[in-house]
Amino acid sequence: MSKKLFIYTLIITLTFSFQAQSAVTEVTGCNLKNGATTEDVIAMSALMNEIMDSDNYKEPRFGQLVLEPYVEQSEKSEFDFYYLNYWGNYDIFGNHMHEWFDHDKGREFVSKISEMTDCRTLNIFDTTVTREYPGD
Predict the structure, then answer these.
(1) Contact at 8 Å (CB) between 130 and 20?
(2) What are the backbone angles phi and psi of residue 92, rounded to the nearest 5°?
(3) What's the pTM?
(4) Tens-digit pLDDT profile for the chain (136 aa)?
(5) Whether the Cβ atoms of residue 98 and residue 8 lie closer than 8 Å to each other
């Protein structure tokens, strides 16, 4: 077997044997308004969880983190906080978007959170998980 063929075979084998999981991640930057606090925003997650955990919601596989900058390298962040939203794959992402927006199931949450924040999506990433969080 030639050296080149061996290297190609090794690369292909390693590529298909690596068990990394592809996911979708969205980063949204937000500023507080009308005297709202980050604690108010976090408290709103109870409503979001109630909506998504109901029997009427078919795609509950969604995760969300609230990120508050406290170490900034050179200049202050233009946002008070960030949402990091994530889905296990593109099918889950599509199903969630369909329910949340097309079926209007997120309307109440979006209306209430919009009174407290001004947000915009900064990036949507194709995310590869290379190490699972092992838990506590």
Answers:
(1) yes
(2) -60, -45
(3) 0.76
(4) 455 544 544 344 434 434 456 689 999 999 999 999 999 999 999 999 999 899 988 888 889 999 998 877 778 888 999 999 999 888 999 999 999 998 999 999 999 999 999 999 989 998 887 887 788 8
(5) no
